[in-house]
Amino acid sequence: MIRNFIAIALTVVVLLVLATISIPIAAGQDVGPLFPPLPASQAPSVTITAPGEPRVAAPIAIPAPAMQQTYCDPEDHWLVSIRHCRQECRNCGQCCPLDFFKDCCRQRVSQNEFTSSLQPGVPVCIVVHGSYVTAESVQEECQRTFRWLRQAAPHRPLHVVFFTWPSEGPLTFDRNNALTSPLPGLDVAILGRRAEFNGIRLAQLMNAIPSQNPICLIGHSHGARIVSSALHLVGGGTVQNLALRQVVPHRIRTVLAAAAIDHDWLLPTERYGRVLCTTECLVNLRSRKDWALWFYPLRKPFSPASLGRKGFSDRDIRRLGEHAAQISELDVTDYVGVGHIWPNYYERDEIANAIAPVVYFDE
User: What percent of the chain clears pLDDT 90, i.e. is strictly above it?
Assistant: First the structure.
């Protein structure tokens, strides 16, 4: 009976992944830049459930009125791409240069133009998407995410940066679109490791931001793994035998949504144990009915449940010790239902309002 259950579960996983994925590229293959390269001449408040309190859905504020303005202000709205970067480390002393774009006009700019546009003291919110997000869709997701965050506090300044990485699939097909693995679901493991590796590129972006600008990181699904990896590196940890040579100090706050990481990975002795030494606070958006994260423990034998579905267990809270005070969980099950993809979140203004105190660095 157990074998039959496992076989059925694996079949369902394969079918779901095949139904989700779209653009075939080979594992480890370089992905072209999102846009053409530069010419050579240019170089209201909300109560959130705290650890130890009853695990019930936190009250969510009523949505604020929509902003009566356009959302194409290049001073506030940016897209940073690492889609052209190799997904391996051949010479880690030379980081891949980041691609910066003003939005909505897709105007490419230099890193200096980006940093000089940041107003001192204004928070920079970096949003990191999950897997199976194509290059064609990032422009729309970037715009919609910006609108979602700005409607929560339209009269307060905020710089929004959408961080995009090569997350397409399937990866278990060759260049002729022939299946090279009997389980396309292995893409999830490949993309998870790729996400962890790209934490060093996110840390690179954080180092490019002036220290007087506080940073809020929002990671969705495998984007939460990128965020966790980056924070662990900034806190002095190592990821895949990589470490940062220097760190620009910032005030940092963090929001994880549908986090595709083990529920105990942020504990001090675990995989990303330096995260809570780096961020002032961390809000975990947990959905108990997330269909994609239901399959998360099936990716390997004896795998723990995901943080995005289970949340921090009582044992996790005890092991966190004094760091438990930095953790809050917001149950969004009633708002996203069984949904997992990022639009399930940015289509709900209530969620943006709930995390606004973290994003805008309210005291």
Answer: 63
